[in-house]
Structure prediction request, 188 residues.
Amino acid sequence: MNTQILALDIAGTPFGWIIPQEAVRYYAAGKVAWDLGEREIVFRGGHSRSGAQSRIAVKPIIAVAGSEIMARKLRVELPLGDQNDLLFRRDRHTCAYCGEKFPRRKLSRDHILARVRGGRDTWMNCVTSCRACNQKKGHKLVHDFRPLVYLPYVPCRNEHFLLSGRNVLADQHDYLAASLPRHSRLLD
Ligand SMILES: [Zn+2]
Prediction:
């Protein structure tokens, strides 16, 4: 259904979440160097002359040969952009000013240096804030308001994939979580 496949380069660096059909194409082209994971999604194709039906089993994690260039290109930066969900998940749905946890609808993006003062939509300039705190802070500078209860940080590549994945399977989670830095808030 909504299963996504975690695509890696042959060195194991993630370069994308792809749909299973795209993974099938890599398998069919003989480009899957190795794969990982318990669960598999089986796709059946046409029948050969002998009557056998072709079958491709897609694993949750695949390493695609010839994908190094793609991975290298992406390694440089994984921008936050306007994706609030990534930010809220990085900050565990916790307001950076009052320290309380809130449901998604009560959260907003706070620019540490307000946009009217030139603040940008970057991982380091943005934190999760409850709507009440965000309103109170307005365009004030942090030191004129309240100290931050936690600091922003730029998620590493694996964290970014954990944050951006939908319906992440246990195998995929374990693979990505295995190399998170200690400061990651995604570690429990
Ligand atoms: Zn708050």
